[in-house]
Structure formats: structure tokens, C-alpha cells
Amino acid sequence: MGLRTAQISDASVLAAISIQVWLSTYIRRGGVNAFFADYVLSEFTEEKFRSLIEDADEHIVVSENKDGLDGFTRISSKSSAPIDNCSTMEISTLYVQPRHQGNGIGRALLQEALRHARDAKVPSVWLTTNSENTSAINFYTSQGFERIGTTHFRIQNQAYLNDVFRYAFP
């Protein structure tokens, strides 16, 4: 595993990983319906990732193995937190392909995201995760994040409860 900054040529792979991880994480019962299929196909596109990679306020780090990419993290430097007492630095995405989870990739990507935030001299970094995603919640709390509130993730008129976590730098 090696970490590097995302390149434009990674955009389609980042879209594919996002769709794979999102569906495997959030579609736990039954099958994929049109509502969620339409969401992932419109949200996770090569064009959107090209735009993010070129945006100076976004920083994407990928994890690469001998066969290709297996995960990535995205750090947004001008995000408005959903609750008070947070910086504008958000870890907006941390995705690792399901078959590569549990091998230290997520931890390495998170440490790189925290290093990036520390280098930016922000007092803290924040993120959200679905309130039912116990594996993510356990992971972030084990890495020193503190749950500081809740918000809702919205897809059209549907709202999904999310926990807000903050990591404060010493």
C-alpha cells in the first residue's frame, strides 16, 4: 500500500470506489432501488471527481496497491460544520473497498488527513457518519474523535441521522 495525492487520471476510479463503498455500506437490506441508484449515479461521477481534484480547497489522497486504488480520503478546507465549535476543515470522505477493510488502509488514510489538517494549522477537524454505521463510529472513536452532536444527511426529501465527530489537535 502506498499513499499519494489524487491525479485527474484517478477520477473514474474514485467514482467507482465511491459507488461500491456507498452501496455496500448503506444498502444493508433487500436490494438497490431506483432512489438510491439514481443518487449514487448522479453523485459519484468522473466529472465531479475531476472538479474536486482540481479544486484548491479540496485535498484527495488515494491508497494504491499493485493492482490499482483501494481507498481514498477527501479533506475539504472550507466546509461549514453543521454545529458550532468546529473548524472549516472537514474529512468529507474516507472510503476503503470492503475487501481491503481491516488491513490498516483506513487508519493510514485517516492519519494522512489529520497530518494535512495539522499542517494547515486548524485547531480541529470534523466529520459526519451515519448514526447506524457502528463500524465507522467505533473506528473514529478509537482514533481519538469525540462525538459532539448530530445532523441529517439528505437525499432529496429523505433525511438520515448522522453523528458529528471532532478531532481537536493538542
From TrEMBL:
GO molecular function, one term: N-acetyltransferase activity
Record protein name field: GCN5 family acetyltransferase
Residue ranges annotated for the N-acetyltransferase domain, each copy included: 1-167
Keywords: Transferase
A Pfam family hit: Acetyltransf_1
Lineage: superkingdom: Bacteria
Keyword Transferase: yes
InterPro entries per UniProt: Acyl_CoA_acyltransferase (IPR016181), GNAT_dom (IPR000182), NAT_camello-type (IPR050769)
